[in-house]
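Quick one, probably user error.
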């Protein structure tokens, strides 16, 4: 199986984990095992657990990590890492990496139905099971579609797109990526079509809904931080503002100490920070990386260390 994927900010992610040779680490989004392989090289007497919900990724990661005795590959969504690791006898880890980007393999493999640049059946399921993009497009109400496209895609023409989806599906079921892309293009003004492909926002929104990405992320942040040993690090790579906002706010809440009103002469709440930021501002891709991989342009890397 051809599974090509360039790991974004690879060196920065590995450095952010601050890997100890005898530590226990989790790559919650194994993908093509780019990050996992670099972690495995540095873990001598410890363990690496590489998780992914995509069966294709699990197959490739298993092959590419087969030479490393420290590595175990498991098919699961990273929001279940606590349960999965507990089943492995693990109750604490020294570092967790979450790369929230959609892999190049998923985007470029037409039959996965993620891309508006290739015609295929609407799918977008990272796990290859459950609710599909075709289900969302053909069964959700106009109000539901409007909310998803507006909130998850940050699309100002969401209502018009949703109405035109309803109009089209009343004639025949919307089945392919190109059918949906044509509806989106017809729903936005010509000026918006010229500046960049208007399909990106709507396809992103539907993908997020299909995979429950934001809810999964919120759940995963709680369980990931709980799993960290003191001094352990949580390294998260986001690719759009909705994800980054969730991560930023969660990190801020974990780093917040006293919650007493500012006019109190001394602290009475007793609250102390649970973590500290390793990088106060998000790390972004270098100019050299941007030239090699345009998909790194929107990436933001945030790193947290448990106190």
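Nope, works fine. Designed sequence:
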């Amino acid at each position: 199986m051809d599974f090509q994927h360039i790991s974004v900010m690879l060196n920065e992610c590995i450095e952010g984990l601050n890997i100890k040779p005898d530590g226990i680490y989790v790559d919650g989004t194994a993908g093509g095992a780019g990050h996992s392989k670099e972690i495995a090289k540095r873990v001598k007497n410890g363990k690496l657990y590489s998780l992914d919900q995509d069966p294709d990724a699990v197959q490739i990661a298993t092959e590419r990590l087969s030479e490393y005795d420290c590595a175990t590959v498991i098919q699961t969504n990273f929001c279940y890492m606590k349960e999965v690791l507990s089943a492995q006898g693990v109750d604490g880890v020294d570092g967790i990496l979450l790369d929230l980007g959609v892999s190049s393999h998923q985007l470029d493999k037409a039959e996965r139905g993620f891309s508006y640049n290739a015609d295929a059946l609407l799918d977008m399921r990272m796990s290859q099971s459950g609710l599909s993009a075709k289900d969302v497009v053909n069964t959700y109400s106009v109000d539901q579609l409007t909310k998803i496209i507006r909130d998850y895609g940050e699309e100002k023409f969401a209502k018009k797109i949703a109405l035109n989806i309803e109009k089209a599906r009343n004639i025949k079921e919307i089945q392919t990526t190109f059918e949906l892309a044509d509806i989106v293009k017809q729903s936005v003004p010509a000026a918006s079509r010229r500046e960049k492909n208007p399909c990106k926002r709507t396809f992103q929104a539907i993908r997020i809904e299909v995979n429950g990405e934001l809810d999964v992320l919120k759940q995963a942040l709680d369980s990931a931080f709980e799993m960290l040993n003191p001094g352990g690090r949580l390294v998260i790579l986001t690719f759009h503002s909705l994800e980054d906002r969730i991560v930023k706010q969660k990190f801020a809440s974990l780093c917040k100490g006293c919650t007493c009103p500012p006019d109190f002469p001394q602290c009475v709440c007793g609250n102390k920070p649970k973590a500290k930021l390793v990088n106060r501002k998000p790390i972004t891709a270098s100019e050299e990386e941007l030239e090699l991989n345009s998909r790194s342009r929107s990436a933001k890397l945030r790193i947290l260390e448990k106190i």
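The domain at 110-211 is CATH 1.10.150.170 (DNA polymerase; domain 1).
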